[in-house]
Amino acid sequence: MPKMAKRLIGQKYLAKVAQAELDWASQARDIRAGKKKSMLSLLEERGYVNAVAGGRDNLDKLMTNKRIGAYVGIDPTAPSLHVGHLLPFMVLFWMYVHGFHTISLVGGATAKIGDPTGRTTSRQAQPSAVRKANLHAMHYQVKALWRKVESYGEKHGYKWEWAWRRGIDNNTTWMEKLSVMELLKVLGPGIRLGTMLSRDTVKNKMENGDGMSFAEFTYPVLQAWDWWYMYNTKQPAIQLQIGGSDQYGNIVAGIDAIKYITKNHSNPELRQEKEDPLMTPYGLTVPLLTTSSGEKFGKSAGNAIWLDKEMTSSFDLYGFFLRSADADVERYLKLFTFLPMETIRSVMEEHTQNPSKRTAQHLLASELLELVHGKSAAEEAAQQHSRFSGNRSKSTTSTSPTLSSPTSETTPTSVTNPDINRSLNPHAPPTNWENAPPPNITLPRSLVYGMTFGRILYHAGLVSSYSEGNRLIQKGGVYVGSAPAQIGHQRDEVSFTPAKWGDPAATEQFVIDGQLLILRVGKWKVKVIKIVDDDEGGMERLRKGAERDYDEARKPVKVRKWKGGNDMPGEPVRSTKRASGESPVSGFEATHREGGRDELKSLRGTENKDVPQRPFRASTDSTDESARIRMHASDRPVTIRKQMSEWSGSDGSKGWRSVD
Ligand SMILES: Nc1ncnc2c1ncn2[C@@H]1O[C@H](COP(=O)(O)OP(=O)(O)OP(=O)(O)O)[C@@H](O)[C@H]1O
Ligand SMILES: N[C@@H](Cc1ccc(O)cc1)C(=O)O
């Protein structure tokens, strides 16, 4: 019987594959007959194509005849994608909703070297923990982004089909296993030094910059190997690489590498005796998104507009696109949205009648927000803008949009972090891909080391109380990432094991490089916790990060008290006493007077973002049975008082704990 079931599934699968092939062939006939636009023509029409490596018409024909695989690579040298990355990714999104197979490659291995393209100075080596934190954060961001693409696509009539395929890969997976000997044997003879030395990046860096290391010099070879690996192992082969126009040289190096390997490989199964047009690799570059002065938006230029909500709020991201110049907005609508061309044309007509209404810019900002942060964030940002920026945004016509710094006038007042919503309102909807919290957070060492996972979950904003954290762990719903003892210290892959309830000392084993802990609750709640010292430097960064949570902190927090075991729920206790220095977070307290978990309530969910500092002050007013903690805007330094309550454990032990 089970065998039968297996066979039935197999046949069903084969039937689906056959149907998908038939559909593709029929679509190809329509394209050839001029009844339908080809994929490449659609991309050209919307302005995505800067250059095609390998011949435009050949690529057009290939994409019409074959459901090929395509990829975009990004090095996780920052914790988030930025707006510039969206351009090559938009091509991938369009291809996906038209049935192509796509891979988003996060370059865990290539980030260790750093792409020297377009630079005159070498990149600063990143500490391993920072690199891993960025890698994990980016992995989850890309994953969530793809889910949003699906629902955004559906809104525009691209309904998910069985044959669509998308994947996220990390090149560490294969680079770790690649030996120097294999690389030199398989690809080495095909790399000509003359060609490499004549590349602009090499010449420029050697003649006008700080010279070039061997590692930097070999970067294009590693990128080429990635492509060869995916060309060779994925089904269908990855035959197209997409990147910004600055990547053209690296992409051509990849095409040359694949052609060399397939011609010369010692394994006859991998060798193509004759060049097969259906297996030829191609490259497609997109124009660079630049400031009005022509500078590329990106990490190196330090002007990136981040897609992570914690780094650029939905409000600011909306504002960035709202400030697009009239001369640019049509182009951006084609590049950053799935809106049909006819809709864009008619919106532009309406816009031209009364440009001061910024109709086109509002549409652009809303659509982009929906794609990147989800529908509800888009609606909320649009409302906030109509409330806060009204006339100011109308008068701005800058071609070089810059982010508004959060001022009391422009900072949104509502709470957008779903975890915070949930802790304030237990009936808030559960976390899903759309409302998942941003993955990055920074915590002081004393809130991680020697803490049970239940507590750390709370400090990281993943649960609303210690006891909720403990319950989740006991149910097996919490995972801890990349435990060095279990999977080897050097591994960068995202890998999780169930977190165990109990021994606080054991937590330390999971801290990577002394600076990083990764926790996951369910599928979508992930926190990449960067651990900083409890000294002033670390706290200063945390305090800066608290800016974003300013409005949340102003809301009164309902305080609950429990008696019984340290972390377990129980009956409310009768009395509360004020105490300091005896909190379970004593390391934190020692340097910060009476700060503790209550302070973290306002700090959690934040990252060391570089936002102007707005000092805040916390005050506590309490009665015997209840306590409330409020944070106020103030130009005075932080002063935090904390409520402590006495507890007694079932084993007769007693102590003080801060009030939840
Ligand atoms: N402003 C931009 N416009 C178009 N494409 C971009 C832009 N910024 C990055 N890209 C593309 O995104 C892909 C990944 O880029 P990468 O990770 O190197 O980001 P980056 O911001 O360019 O980094 P860096 O500035 O440090 O080189 C590349 O194909 C790159 O060309
Ligand atoms: N070199 C690319 C990123 C990348 C990494 C690996 C690849 O296989 C492809 C692209 C960049 O810095 O923009």
UniProtKB/TrEMBL annotation:
What parts of the sequence cross the membrane?
none
Q: What is this protein called?
A: Tyrosine--tRNA ligase
Q: Give one GO molecular function term.
A: ATP binding
Q: Where is the composition biased (Low complexity)?
A: 393-414
- Please tell me whether the keyword Nucleotide-binding is annotated for this protein: yes
Q: Name one Pfam family in it.
A: TyrRSs_C
Output the Gene Ontology cellular-component terms: cytosol; mitochondrion
Q: What class of enzyme is it?
A: ligase
Where in the numbering of this chain does the Tyrosyl-tRNA synthetase C-terminal domain appear? 431-536
**Could you state one GO biological process linked to this protein?**
tyrosyl-tRNA aminoacylation
Which species does this protein come from? Cryomyces minteri
Catalysed conversion reaction? tRNA(Tyr) + L-tyrosine + ATP = L-tyrosyl-tRNA(Tyr) + AMP + diphosphate + H(+)
Q: Where is the composition biased (Polar residues)?
A: 383-392, 415-424
Q: Which UniProt keywords apply?
A: Aminoacyl-tRNA synthetase, ATP-binding, Ligase, Nucleotide-binding, Protein biosynthesis
List all Basic and acidic residues biased stretches: 590-612, 625-635
Entry-linked InterPro entries: aa-tRNA-synth_I_CS (IPR001412), aa-tRNA-synth_Ic (IPR002305), Rossmann-like_a/b/a_fold (IPR014729), S4_RNA-bd_sf (IPR036986), Tyr-tRNA-ligase (IPR002307), Tyr-tRNA-ligase_bac-type (IPR024088), TyrRSs_C (IPR032005)
Q: Where is this region: Disordered?
A: 379-439, 561-660
Q: What is its EC number?
A: 6.1.1.1
Family label: Belongs to the class-I aminoacyl-tRNA synthetase family.
CDD domains assigned to the protein according to its UniProt record, in alphabetical order: TyrRS_core
